[in-house]
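Hey, quick one: can you model this chain's 3D structure?
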Amino acid sequence: MGFWSKSPKLSDEAMLVAFELKNEIAHLRKEFPASAYMFDATLRATSDVLAQFDPQKKVDMLRQSISQNGARTSSVDGGTSVLAQRFAVIVYSLSDQTEGVYLLTSTFGDAVHSGKSYRPLDERDELPPNDRKSQEILQSQGHKCFADFARSLRASQINVGYDDTKYDEMVQDTLAAFDVREEAASGMLGTRLRTLGEVIFRLELELKKSKCLLFR
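Sure thing. Here's the predicted structure for all 216 residues.
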């Protein structure tokens, strides 16, 4: 006599934390767009680079990267990237047959889409940045502002066979990295990232309780 195998299901508690995660990412995008872009761009890059691998391999590679970058979580950018990778591990550890999984996969998909662009250059980028470290980085390359850097990068790209896509990616990623330093100066970004990290941690715990994760 046969029987139906019951598909795993996100518990009510896991669903609540999944909604909380979605809201936390939305708050990050609203309050700290540069950091949110780095979170989203990490997920976009993860999705692109690991597309050819099966879920188990994706999880193994991500965990290795998290282990290697763990010491960088004290820095704003490193911490944001690691948080994104931790979320990716959760998503890749879930079966497509898991009831309620769409809430998490859609959050992941939204992030991948948002990670395609940050912001265009504007008048603020014609001025020296407020952050001293950013000033030093630009000055070490002979630039006074980020717009100078972007123009120099465009010229170098033309010399090597100019590629619009590559140029745009480099400008967006570098611009966000500089803007993150400005966001961190408020002192509130660290609090937001710690909250996001706590939510991701609680989500993983609830999914383990629900026995939804394929890879422990």
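One thing worth noting: The chain has nine helices and no strands.
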